[in-house]
Automatic annotation (TrEMBL):
Role summary: Catalyzes the phosphorylation of methylthioribose into methylthioribose-1-phosphate.
Originating species: Planococcus shenhongbingii
EC number, UniProt record: 2.7.1.100
Entries under Pfam families matching the protein: APH
Protein name: Methylthioribose kinase
Pathway(s) served: Amino-acid biosynthesis; L-methionine biosynthesis via salvage pathway; S-methyl-5-thio-alpha-D-ribose 1-phosphate from S-methyl-5'-thioadenosine (hydrolase route): step 2/2
Positions contributing to substrate binding: D232, R339
SUPFAM superfamilies: Protein kinase-like (PK-like)
Similarity field: Belongs to the methylthioribose kinase family.
Residues reported to bind ATP: N43, K60, E114, D115, L116, D249, P250, E251
GO molecular function terms attached to this record: S-methyl-5-thioribose kinase activity
PANTHER family: METHYLTHIORIBOSE KINASE
Amino acid sequence: MTIASKQYEALTEEKAIALAQSLYPFPEGAELVCREIGDGNLNYVFQIKDPKSGKGLIIKQALPYAKVVGESWPLTLKRATIEANALQKHSEFAPGLVPAVYAMDEELAITVMEDLSHLTIAREGLIQGAAYPKLSEDIGEYLGRTLFHTSDFALHPFEKKRLAVEYSNPELCKITEDLIFTDPFFNNDTNDYEPELQATVEAIWNNGPLKLEAAKLKFSFLTEAEALLHGDLHTGSIFASESETKVIDPEFAFYGPIGFDVGLFLANLIVQSITRSGEERQVIVNHIERTWEVFSTRFSELWDREGIEAYKDTADYKEFILEKIFRDTLGFAGCELIRRTIGLAHVKDLDSIEDKNLRIRLKKKALQTGQTLILKRSELTTISAVSGLLEELKQ
Ligand SMILES: Nc1ncnc2c1ncn2[C@@H]1O[C@H](COP(=O)(O)OP(=O)(O)O)[C@@H](O)[C@H]1O
Ligand SMILES: CSC[C@H]1O[C@H](OP(=O)(O)O)[C@H](O)[C@@H]1O
């Protein structure tokens, strides 16, 4: 559905209600209520609801700047169009795993979508100890399907390159290039960490071999247009329940290295494996293993069944590609672990730990795990080797 376009203006709750009324068949005389519920770093999210019928929808609006910083950090409104289009493109391949998009408007920089508030943001649930039994199956499927179907292994090269142009997202990529791949490895003002981590952080800045590997990973991110990525697949971008999983917020979508999406998700699970113990920790380790198993099985099966690449049946080629994706996955996961601990954008899983000694100890563990994943990514050739590493570093 398209909206009669007008000039960009930031929505208020009243304006969001008026817009929702014009877009959705709410019952006659419904008295709609609206709340701005955005808790992310960049955008506004309005939830509009008819309390009587329970019907509702979400209007997400991009601001011409990053919400977390303010007008001093201008940011393209085009990200809203990228997000709406990526949701729809990914739903072609992973139906049921993303919210339905009801409408979008490029001028207003809005996406009107299904209200998922019957679910919980996975990060919040995981912090409370949720197990989310379907999480790794669903995200493994989502990753296998979206990444295979948007790659050169599935698309005509003209279509793949058309999509790469459509999803050119330089400003949002620059945020990732800075916040994930650069700033945490240098003494940069954007970094944010407790004084107790100073020595550990300086050791990262002074670690030549680590910085060389971080530079290589950044180069992959800058240059390898392998598939249409979600681009920011952390557990705050996933809604979940015992029986459902939905991926939201692909405003960082672009053509990049496949391992980036897989690695970001695994890194955010690894944070949970660091904060949990006993049986609850094992649930997360199982999710880590299962995500890779489901992703690689689905990718491999789609390759065999639907692959169009002339070399697809050449001995060992598929295995070479999957090994490359796995190596990249571990490296990108390592960078995400480091930036979520000492960079600009932290994670609540670690920051909300009240006991300071424990918090610092676990943050050091996250940094150590991140560094090991980056440095040893060529030696860790199986997902069980990664579980083994997590077990070793647990002590
Ligand atoms: N479709 C949705 N249904 C219900 N709540 C949503 C939906 N999309 C976003 N939200 C809420 O808004 C918050 C911020 O959304 P998100 O897309 O992550 O914004 P940002 O791009 O600013 O990070 C989410 O954590 C969630 O609470
Ligand atoms: C100033 S952007 C920082 C950080 O925020 C984004 O996450 P989200 O939109 O989900 O809050 C992204 O991870 C960026 O790196």
